[in-house]
Specification:
- The complex is a heterodimer of chains A (231) and B (306).
- Chain A has one domain.
- Chain A contains seven helices and two strands; from the N terminus they run H-H-E-H-H-H-E-H-H.
- Chain A has helices at 3-13, 15-42, 56-78, 83-115, 117-121, 134-188, 192-226, and strands at 49-50, 122-123.
- Chain A is an all-alpha fold and 231 residues long.
- Chain A starts with a helix and ends in a 5-residue tail after the last helix.
- Chain A is globular, with a radius of gyration of 20 Å.
- In chain A, strands 1-2 form a two-stranded parallel ribbon.
- In chain B, 38% of the residues lie in helices and 28% in strands.
- Chain B is built from eleven helices and 13 strands.
- Chain B is of the alpha/beta class.
- Chain B folds into two domains: 3-217, 3-Layer(aba) Sandwich (Rossmann fold); 221-305, 2-Layer Sandwich (Alpha-Beta Plaits), CATH 3.30.70.
- In chain B, the strands form three sheets. A six-stranded mixed sheet of chain B has the order 5-6-7-3-8-9, with helices on both faces. Chain B has a four-stranded antiparallel sheet with strand order 11-12-10-13, sandwiched between helices. Chain B has a three-stranded antiparallel sheet with strand order 2-1-4, covered by helices on one side.
- The chains are: A mainly alpha (231), B alpha/beta (306).
- Chain A binds chain B through residues 3, 6, 9-10, 13-14, 16-17, 67, 70-72, 74-75, 77-85, 227-228, 230-231, and chain B through 48, 51, 53-55, 70-72, 75-82, 85-92, 95-96, 98-100, 102-104, 143, 149.
């Protein structure tokens, strides 16, 4: 069997990280949200409820990205796995995880539209903006966000591991400086209107595509960094 | 002799320290090596560069004639579980062993199961990060032995293991090596305890190889002589003394150089005690001796520079 696929199997031997904990986070957030809606509905509050709880497993993916590097990478080195095999195997399992999450979100959103928000007008998975492009579009958006979150964690941890805390902090500050400078330039040029209309034109689907491109660029940077990282 | 590892002018420099200093050596096939030296001498650094886990500042490393870096065909024939090995979060010993089984082509599950029994390692219910130091070492030892890799590194494998468990490790290592000969590199600072296992010894001190010899030859290389203080000169003339300790009127000297049967006869006639030097003593004395000489020459150099 291909050694990269063995890395995927390695990650799945302990299903806790990639399967059970994300489901637990998602299930927990969901049950809490529905309980709160039920209490609100019981005290006469109607109207549509939207919960931000669905983000929880997405944030968890950033943590998974960090741990994939800080703990699984050193172990993969002891398993005589090359850095390339580790990188592609790990991204394969991350993509699997993100895709499964997207499927769960779409199924959840679909149930919500059918049941009128679980009969409570509560929408945990569904939002009109994300579903503009239908279920496939929604799945794509969830997938892109999940991959971006994982990549943020993974790339950050790679830079930290390779170059240490100082360089890591400096690059975060550098990123902040670039963002603030960009905001300053946009403000100076009175171009905020154009920026927002551009974002509007892209729509959620377009922005998700940009997010995926950003994730790919960051992942490429992580790969270049990992090539010379030591466990 | 076939060399499975060849190292030439290997240097590893960290920001302000030299961990490995222009080292050259080769490793013979199917031999048990002791990579001996003090903590911080550079043992782990050398092993991680050989397995491409770390990078050389300069010099070349060849394993099975090839560069190991990103070379799956070379890497899968080696196994190196480091002393401070990290494991995936939430992994139990059972997970770690199942993962190892995926990657090492010669993995022997029966041997692994037996070793789990021998070391009384709890497989389930406790994650590796919650294990005791000895149990953590056992996980690394089991992976190292059961992987049956053509080159296996053991990095201070006995840390936290009790005397019984250490003996189990030595016994299993020897019996499995007898059935499946392979190259084993055992890093250790408990020299006497492992000395019976070793066919060859590499001693590393401050990043330099100070000894690269067969274990049997080393044992012959020096002797301890207990002699009357006044008579020391007569018996040690022309020999290099690497250690001297006086107690009252008697002096114990450790001399370098093989003793001829003539020497032995002469000493026996004079009623002197001649004892072999343990490998540990010899290595400690030699490294101390080298350090003293090194210290002198380097301070001379400094003086010359000023």
């Amino acid at each position: 069997m291909n050694r990269t696929l063995r890395v995927v199997r390695m990650q799945l031997i302990n299903r806790q990280t990639y399967v059970w904990v994300p489901l637990l986070v998602l299930g927990g957030a969901f049950i809490l949200s529905v309980a709160i809606w039920w209490i609100l509905a019981g005290s006469g509050v109607t109207g549509n409820f939207y919960g931000g709880g669905a983000q929880a497993p997405l944030w968890y993916l950033a943590v998974v990205g960090v741990q994939a590097l800080t703990l699984t990478f050193p172990f993969s080195q002891a398993m005589s796995v090359t850095r390339r095999e580790f990188f592609f195997g790990t991204y394969l399992i991350a993509a699997l995880s993100a895709a499964s999450l997207a499927v769960v979100f779409v199924i959840g959103g679909w149930i919500e539209t059918l049941t009128g928000g679980w009969g409570l007008n509560g929408y945990f998975f569904y939002s009109a903006e994300i579903w503009q492009g239908g279920p496939l579009g929604a799945a794509f958006i969830f997938f892109a966000i999940a991959m971006l979150m994982f990549t943020l964690g993974f790339t950050g941890a790679t830079v930290y591991k390779r170059f240490g805390p100082t360089v890591f902090t400096v690059s975060l500050i550098g990123l902040g400086v670039v963002l603030v400078a960009a905001m300053f330039v946009v403000g100076r040029l009175n171009a905020w209107g154009q920026v927002f209309s551009w974002i509007g034109e892209q729509g959620p689907l377009g922005m998700a595509a940009w997010g995926l491109i950003a994730a790919a660029a960051l992942a490429a940077a992580a790969f270049a960094t990992l090539r010379r990282a030591t466990p | 002799m076939t060399h499975v590892i060849e190292v030439e002018h290997l240097t590893k420099r960290y920001r302000d320290t030299v961990a490995v200093d222009d080292v050259s050596f080769s490793i013979e096939k199917d031999t048990i090596y002791g990579l001996l030296g003090r903590n911080g001498a550079g043992k782990t650094t050398v092993m991680s560069i050989l397995t491409a886990q770390n990078f050389a500042t300069s010099g070349t490393v060849r394993v099975f004639g090839q560069h190991p870096y990103e070379n799956a065909r070379v890497l899968e024939r080696m196994c190196f579980v480091r002393e401070s090995q990290k494991y995936p979060d939430d992994a139990t010993p059972r997970h770690a062993l199942r993962m190892a089984r995926l990657f090492f082509p010669h993995w022997d599950q029966e041997l692994a199961d037996q070793l789990v029994d021998d070391f009384q390692l709890p497989l389930k219910g406790r994650t590796i990060k919650k294990l005791s130091r000895g149990q953590l070492s056992a996980v690394g030892v089991i992976i190292g032995l059961a992987s049956r890799a053509e080159i296996t590194f053991f990095d201070e494998p006995y840390l936290g293991l009790d005397a019984v468990a250490r003996q189990i490790f030595y016994d299993r290592l020897l019996s499995d090596y007898a059935e499946h000969p392979r190259t084993i590199i055992l890093s250790s600072h408990l020299i006497d305890e492992v000395s019976n296992l070793l066919g060859r010894v590499l001693v590393i001190d401050r990043g330099r190889i100070v000894m690269d010899e067969e274990t049997d030859e080393i044992r012959d290389r020096a002797a301890n002589i207990v002699v009357d203080a006044a008579a020391v000169e007569a018996f040690t003339a022309g020999r290099e003394i690497i250690h001297r300790r006086s107690l009252g009127r008697t002096t114990s000297v450790t001399v370098l150089g093989r003793l001829t049967s003539d020497d032995r006869a002469r000493m026996a006639a004079a009623g002197l005690d001649v004892a072999p030097v343990s490998l540990q003593q010899l290595i400690v004395r030699t490294t101390q001796h080298a350090a003293e000489q090194g210290g002198v020459s380097s301070s001379l150099e400094e003086g010359a520079l000023r």
